[in-house]
Amino acid sequence: MKVKELQPNQGKVDVTIEVVSKDPIRTFSKFGKEGRVCNAVVKDDSGQIKLTLWNEEVDAISVGDIVQITNGYVKEWQGELQLSAGRFGKMEVTGKATAQPAQETAPEPKEETHYDEEYI
């Protein structure tokens, strides 16, 4: 399944995505228990979506990870689709994204460039 195919209130979602970014971790208290939640932006070759990470998932997923979600679900929150593994799904890191192409080397400094001796 591809990100662009995901619909609100869809279950049984199997998708492989790359983690692009992670928001700061938030804590909450529900029914007397403390928890943690974090949103991440994930993508595949068809688009991107927010991924909600709960509790131990927050530490298990890093930017650049390739993640396989099995039996996940999609909901809509404030007009935006959000993907989650949920209680009955599975989220597994299967690898790292391929490295970005190397940037070109910096041009040689011009003759008039001055370097302080302490930095040479």
Description of the structure:
- It is a single chain.
- The model is unreliable at 101-120 (pLDDT under 50).
- This protein has a single domain (3-95), classed as OB fold (Dihydrolipoamide Acetyltransferase, E2P).
- The radius of gyration is 20 Å and the shape is globular.
- The chain is built from one helix and seven strands.
- It has 120 residues and is mainly beta.
- Helix content is 4%, strand content 52%.
- Strands 1-3-4-6-5 form a five-stranded mixed β-barrel.
* CATH homologous superfamily grouping: Nucleic acid-binding proteins
CATH topology: OB fold (Dihydrolipoamide Acetyltransferase, E2P)
List the helices and strands in order. EEEEHEEE
Question: What is the residue-mean pLDDT, rounded to a whole number?
Answer: 85
The helix/strand class is mainly beta
Largest sheet: spatial strand order:
1-3-4-6-5
* Tally of individual helices: 1
The name of the CATH architecture is Beta Barrel
Name the helicity range.
under 10%
In short:
With 120 residues, the protein is mostly beta strands. 4% of the residues lie in helices and 52% in strands. The protein has one domain (3-95): Beta Barrel (OB fold (Dihydrolipoamide Acetyltransferase, E2P)), CATH 2.40.50.
Keywords:
120 residues, mainly beta, five-stranded mixed beta barrel, 4% helix, disordered C terminus
Record the SSE blueprint.
Layout: E1 10-22, E2 26-30, E3 33-44, E4 47-54, H1 56-60, E5 65-77, E6 80-84, E7 90-96
Parallel strand pairs: 4-6
Antiparallel strand pairs: 1-3, 1-5, 2-3, 3-4, 5-6, 5-7
